[in-house]
Design goal:
This protein has about 260 residues and is mainly α. It has helices at about 5-25, 30-40, 45-70, 80-95, 100-120, 140-155, 160-175, 175-200, 205-230, 235-255. It contains ten helices and no strands.
Length: about 260
Amino acid sequence: MELLLEPSNWALLAAIGLVAGFIDAVVGGGGLLSIPALLTLGIPPHTALGTNKFAASFGSSMAAWTFYRQHLLKPAFWYIAFIATFIGAVLGSILVYLLNAQWLEKALPLLIIGIAIYSLLSPNAISDTNCQAPTQTQPKLKQTLQGLILGAYDGFAGPGIGAFWTVSSGTLYKLPLLHSCALARAMTFTSNLTALAIFGFLGQVHWQIGLWMGLSMMLGSFVGARCAIKFGMPFIRPLFILIVLSIAANLAWSAWF
C-alpha cells in the first residue's frame, strides 16, 4: 500500500478510470482495466473488488442518467428486472465469500469467447435490424431470469457484465442497440450499488481510492455515452467486438496460461 503515496500512481488511477468509464458507457468491460490496476497497487483481491464497485457506481450512474435524458430508457418498463438484479447481486456478493472461484476463472473465458463468436456470426445480435423501442413492459419471466443471473454474476465477479446485458437484451427483447446500452448501464448501476453496500458492510472497500477513480470513471462515462448516442451503430459495433475479444483473451491468458 506504500505505492499509494506516490503521485504517479494517483495519476495512473485517474487515467485508467477515464478509459474504463468510457468503455463501460459504450460496451461494458471497464473492470478488466480497473481491477488489475487496483491489484497492482497491492490492494487485497476482495478489497479490490469492493473498491471497484464503488468506483464503477459513479460511472454507471452517469452513463445511465445520460441515456435516460435522451429518452433511451424508461424505468417503468423494467421494474421487474431492477428487482431481480438487486436480489441477484445480493446473492452473488455473498457467494463470492463462500465459494471457490477457480471454476469460474476457467469457464469465464469460454463464455465470453462464445458471446464474441455469436456477435460476429449473428448480425442481429448487436444491430438495429428488426428492432423497435419498447412500448410496454417486457415479459416478466425474461426480466426475472435475466436480472437474477446477470445480477448474481456482477455481484460475484463482473468482468464483461455490460456486454452480457447489451447482447442478452437485444436478443431477448429485440431492442435497438442504444436502448440495450441504456438498459445495460441502468442494471449495472443497480448491481454495482447493491454489491457496494455488501462489500462496504464487510469492510472490503478502500473509500479514498474508490472516490478518486470513481470521479474519473464518471467523466469517462459521460464522454462515452455521448459518443455512443452521437455516432450510433458504426461506432459501437466494432468497439463492442474489439472489447469483447480483448476481455476473452485477457481472461483466457490469466486462467489457462
